[in-house]
């Protein structure tokens, strides 16, 4: 059994990690780390675990945790993992960081977008960006995984085949994304109160959202050139789910079949990416509770653009599920172990 | 592997049966019966099953189905199962009826509340009411299971220990229940449109809801006398979940400990009933997606009453999950097989 | 023009007061009092008022406010109004208190349920409970109005005719109430986050909710005897609305017509109480945004009980609308002035 | 008093027309036309009008209606108004058509996108597109108003100043729109059931939505050249509201001030268009229940694009409110008459 420790176990991503790892046949959570609920029973914070998890929350001592676990998940705000990480920890345990600390290779760029001086840039090169569908081989041998952001996961996977195959003009990419409210975390903020979110939709972080450089980096790697995009996230009155609607101009005339083939090239063997049938578009409800990414596209002959769409459960494939997928790779398990939950409808 | 056929596979309960049986280690669905979607792929109706279920929907031919399956689930409106059932079918396959046809032993009472002449009253005596926590032994040997209604499951389990132990006055029982909208089914009715249900709450079936006699029967068996209740269901703007708030006068002065002990007497060993800790009350979200029933109570010294509360996921423990629990018992499997999903939050 | 000041203008009830008073033909808000947003523009806190209200928030100085306004609304947590009120203020301005401070005549009872020592019990006798439909005449001449709580408004009006006419047994009254989340206020609490409330229903304050004694007092006045009830509120995933489902045993056999006549006796001339037609039950959406109270009842011959139902918009008739209705009475205006908004659907 | 008749009074737009016209000081509804509810009381269909509207629904006889009313609103699916309209009707009553029949001047284009042969192309030239902010003068003298679609209203007003002033490249415009579910109407369709819409987001009509040519026409008039766009609508789990997020490349380097000035040029005197302050973006909740359009923009120096945002209540400014605004203009009333409802929060 893989022993897992979670820093930030009482956030929404932490809760989902506990759900997935508790149901995982070859892993178990042995350290429920928390800042706010130390010494309280985990099941008192998340009553869904009543009679399932008996443990109490412990502190966030990463060094001590590294001695007792095989893998550490950090599901905390940016800055924390990077401030705690060190060679000693990495020599004892694998680290899967769900924050943004090691996603952007350029420390200066990180600092510009996040407003934080990176506390441990020396680990940036070693860290592997844990988008399994693209970086599978590098992940297997890694010690430190930068678990991708929710929007970047969905955006990159929706666009990747077309930018990689050179079918779209990178400078024309526009990503309009919509997320359920669990992405905003469990912190007590007026903006996230039920009465503020319900019966409302808003854009936020217009032109400034921190996932922009992360998406740009991944698209740039695929394009082989620097890519700048517009990315606009929106807050939706639902708990879970991200839908990405992306637009780009085609480089040249192309057919449905050719674009379809591009998606098949990259995703035909992927266990979690489902390329939907023609004219069937992703909806978040069809992936809820699962690690699936549903993608599809539509060509517009009138405007010579392609619309690319993707849907994920932000808490699963956008956070905890992808983290477990990375764990499976790190420990040589079949990649889908413990991750074959069927989407729950309605 | 147990071969299962589902009549009504394209309703919400049918969808959940497919989800649970597809994840069940010892069962498989081999017949997806439907009235409206014959010859269409099941995954075209329920896109969550894309790339998971390849089968097409078949018709609702129960006789033919009985020859090909070990167990038949009927997840259809009342009247259908009772009109199709016959000795020949029951001699070939077990039948678990999710409709109300065989829940009420008295055909005349069925006809009064449902406005239907019972098509096959000769099977009423044989049918076993599939509330596993209470009728476990009878279920094991049955051929025909009347899978309990969603409200009756939650109501009965919340009240059972107190009425069985004679702590409450049966004639004073009032049950005020609240249900998510999946309980209303997937039929296209104006009343169930998003804009009608959202930002609204209403009572329905006031004093006339058809689950009333079913609850009364179960409470009567427990009380050893005829029980009449008030039962008022309400429609809540959420997908899943039932919360029951039940009231009754205490027969005599009693203590928290004594009432607690009554719950423990009946539920201490139950895998799916969780008696919450003192002053922690059930919330539907803590059971979502799972087969758990969370119950608790509160004594009111001022009014000499007890408030009994219960929460279930109406689609799981209130329908498909309980049906699978019954299947497990019928086929000699551990009762929790395929049913240990952890509640999904948020 | 009546000059109005609001203490607590930046809560949800405060916002609604501003909406109603801004649209009121004979009143205007001249003081937007706030604790958290002093010196910020009101329309920066509530952007719905952009280009409609230009004023900045002021502090909560009730004494100073009394010199500049004709009427003071206190839409604040309990304890504040009672700690600030004094003879001098009341000699200068009418005070309509939306908190619970002056609703319960017995200071000891207030202290037991609210856990606060009443800061100014000397005003309890003078204060008039502002349920206009019942206390209209006393309100006209008052200086200090205790604006009723949301649950007590809806509960009392649903039950009043039957208890007043002696048709029901007071000791059997059980009130099961359901409220939208705006009733929980705008404070940043984890429990009221979107992801905690959405897709969930829970009971709270079981047997201990503070509106219990307020309802009991009103029902006791009507019954002419002390009434103890069970009152259980529930939190519903919607913004606005309260639905009350109340139960009581009939004192004697009675007919639909007799009960109907009781409602007509008290409400035939009421502008805001709508007694629905037979077998049509209140739904919160039919009163949203309006000052209406929809009520109806159903007799149950089987159990000899009556089910009484009521629906209000908790922010309007349950708070700000009723406060304006009281203001109209205090200043000799037609009671419906500025309050004839038609319910908004969907 | 202006006498108004409504064809399609029992849809959501019809209900809102009744709400607005009932509260309008100089208009009254004298004909509640309906196809499905003839001879039923209007308040039985929409219980919010109980005790407010006593009339029964009549049929949809437009000719007869024209003899009894001053203005006819057609709030019906496309095709109906165009099939009934004739010179005689127009000689007797003004017609405000809320369907798409007269919005697109080119009958062939209408037929391509709507799949209907236009039944009365002879009135296309006469019809005035009722976007009051742009076509105010033409509206005043018209007999037949094509009331704009919900998405086109919000999209056009968000983009208009920049395309009119030549600041953006028309061929780069991409409009990503999100709508509450009332826009889907009150027809009983499985896709619009609560459980299908709630906890879900989807795009629909990708590259093919019928509002595309309508928006393109309006932008083309403003640009003085033919404009083709990408337009993608999304269905959001909320009742009311449309949010538009539009993207375009700037023709040249420009400053915040210059763009701001463009908006001010066109909207400074507009009673219903609110240009928000810098970096404050539209949210649908701030306009709910009102006729306001909130717009704003953000320049992105990195990509040389501008993001333009707009929010409306689709039932008010996107349908019934705009229709009443047109009526006010047609009858020489102040444009805001009966339309100054303050947005309702929460």
Shape of chain A: globular
Overall average pLDDT of chain A: 98
Distance between the termini of chain A: 34 Å
Largest interface: A-D, 45 and 45 residues
Question: Briefly, what CATH class of the largest domain in chain A?
Answer: Alpha Beta
CATH homologous superfamily identity of the largest domain in chain A? Dihydrodipicolinate Reductase, domain 2
How much helical structure, as a percent, in the residues of chain A?
25-40%
User: Which spans of chain A of ≥5 residues are poorly predicted at pLDDT below 50?
Assistant: none
Give the H and E element order of chain A: EHEHHEHHEHEHEHEHEHEEHEEEH
Rounded radius of gyration of chain A (Å): 20 Å
Q: Assembly state here? A: homotetramer
The major beta sheet of chain A can be summarized as: 7 strands, mixed
CATH topology of the largest domain in chain A: Dihydrodipicolinate Reductase, domain 2
Task: Write out key terms for the chains shown.
homotetramer, 346 residues, alpha/beta, Rossmann fold, 2 domains, globular
Describe this structure in words.
The structure is a homotetramer of 346-residue chains. Chain A is α/β, with parallel strands linked by helices and 346 residues long. In chain A, 32% of the residues lie in helices and 19% in strands. The first copy, chain A, has helices at residues 12-22, 42-45, 62-68, 80-84, 87-92, 107-114, 132-140, 150-164, 194-197, 211-223, 256-267, 316-330; strands at residues 2-7, 27-33, 71-74, 94-97, 128-129, 144-146, 174-179, 202-203, 230-235, 242-249, 273-275, 293-300, 305-312. Chain A has a seven-stranded mixed beta sheet with strand order 8-9-7-10-13-12-11. Chain A has a six-stranded parallel beta sheet with strand order 2-1-3-4-6-5, sandwiched between helices. In chain A, helix 1 packs across helix 12 (316-330), helix 7 (132-140) runs parallel beside helix 12 and helix 8 packs parallel to helix 10. Chains in contact: A-B, A-C, A-D, B-C, B-D, C-D. Chains A and D meet through strand 7, strand 8, strand 9, strand 10 and strand 12 of A and strand 7, strand 8, strand 9, strand 10 and strand 12 of D.
